[in-house]
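Sample intake sheet
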Amino acid sequence: MKTYMKNIKDMKVLKKVVITCIFTLVFITSLMYSYAKVDSSYSTPTNMFYINDFANILSSETKNYVLSKGKEIEDKTTAQLVVTTIDKINGQDIETFSNELYNKWRIGSKGKNNGILLLISKEDRKIKIEVGYGLEGAINDAKAGRILDDTAIPYLKNNDYDSAVKNTVEVIQQIIYKEYGVEGAVDNYEKSEKIPLIPLIFSIIIFIIIITRYIIIFKRGGFRVRI
């Protein structure tokens, strides 16, 4: 009897293990399939590399402009700026997709990771600047957001993809040049990254005065309640 009960118990445990394994296998398979769809759709950039208009939303003039700027930037700095448009992202957010695409295409010079990917998803109506570690000091997430708010979003609202791309590329080009010390480069977003000095000093002085006043009051015996 005990042996029979033990066998039943073992069968239940084995059943749970099998079910768990099946669910795990299904989950991993579905996950791999979702990644495979992304990889197969955009496994490699076009032969122009700097401009990949998979969504066919850019004019020939804009493509040539980006191609020219991309070559110029790499020649002067070794950094790479790549613009890519797609129809839709399947099953991922744009942050994850852009990061995976950036790494898969190995944007940026070898050993420097100094690449930037400007990604537009047409149907999702989303845009992202993906920055490699080598340029994060020049363009952090907050700065990238401000750039897009100024140079891209207003034009994308009117489906003016050409202006959005050209304006954004021009600004990013100047920031990269400034980072690499190219003569004449101007980073119009650099000042917004720094805290204004005069207001900061004024705030510190006020803070010191308040703290000093409290210290004097406590040394004299603390606050007194008048009755």
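Comment: Residues 114 and 134 are 4 Å apart (CA to CA). The chain is about 55% helix and 10% strand.
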